[in-house]
Amino acid sequence: MKSVKLNNGISMPMLGYGVFRVEDGKELADKVYFAIEQGYRSIDTAAIYGNEASVGEGINRAIEAGVVKREELFVTSKVWNAGLTFEQTKAAYAESLEKMQLDYLDLYLIHWPGKDRFKEPYRALEELYKDEKVKGIGVSNFQVHHLEELLSTASIVPAVNQVEFHPRLIQEELRVYTDRKGILLEAWSPLMNGELLAHPLLQELSSKYGKSLAQIVLRWDIEHGVITIPKSMTDSRIIENKDIFDFEIEPADMERLDQLDDGTRSGPHPDEFDF
């Protein structure tokens, strides 16, 4: 797995295993274990997903079985910051650790900006980081104006901004801004819930490169320097999704994929979603 350095010097895998909209339970724990067994070292969850316990079970089972050491994993969760105070945010972090049965997280994110609901929670994240209770902190679904507002008072620049990102939503202005600020983008819904996979251009490139349609999109993420966290509960696809580091997409084909951008979202717009 290729890794990238965050702005605080820690390494984060460019490819991870996402668990959005996956029900808590034994099946998820089994899939997390399987993903780790297959070489995934980054696991992404969130408090609002309601599945941190099963994610933690899969992680701890893999550690106990000797498949991986805790320090070799990169575990992310997110705080659902709907009106949380400074102290409530710190308590939410402790609750996530308790559910996952972990001593620390590698990355903890503010899940949505909301209408100015992120400053107090982010201040709590900064304290958690300064107290060395979390390895890195960041945000999710922040647009440029949210980041500008955050950075006007923050003492720590977010390491990561996790956003919806795929060929139909390339977020060019945001990518330019975060690159300038040293914030790495991470793609959620990289396959647009599967909607992208019927596009003729992807079918053409799949044939050209001898890779699946999903692998083309995930490789496109990587070549843009964007971390990606595809979700699957199918063993063959979990294996397939990680097999993207043995080829490159030609610059002309990268540009053709970029030109699919029409601003289409599969999730809510951050300026309109106020949970």
TrEMBL record:
Q: What domain of life does the UniProt record list for this protein's source?
A: Bacteria
Q: Which UniProt keywords apply?
A: NADP, Oxidoreductase
Q: Where does substrate bind?
A: 111
Gene Ontology MF terms? oxidoreductase activity, acting on the CH-OH group of donors, NAD or NADP as acceptor
Which residue numbers delimit the NADP-dependent oxidoreductase domain? Answer: 26-261
Q: Which PROSITE patterns is this protein grouped with?
A: ALDOKETO_REDUCTASE_1 (PS00798), ALDOKETO_REDUCTASE_2 (PS00062), ALDOKETO_REDUCTASE_3 (PS00063)
Locate the active site.
Answer: 49 (proton donor)
Give the family this protein belongs to, as stated in its UniProt record: Belongs to the aldo/keto reductase family.
Where exactly is the site Lowers pKa of active site Tyr?
A: 78
Entry's InterPro entries?
AKR (IPR020471), Aldo/ket_reductase_CS (IPR018170), NAD(P)_OxRdtase_dom_sf (IPR036812), NADP_OxRdtase_dom (IPR023210)
Protein name (database record)? Aldo/keto reductase
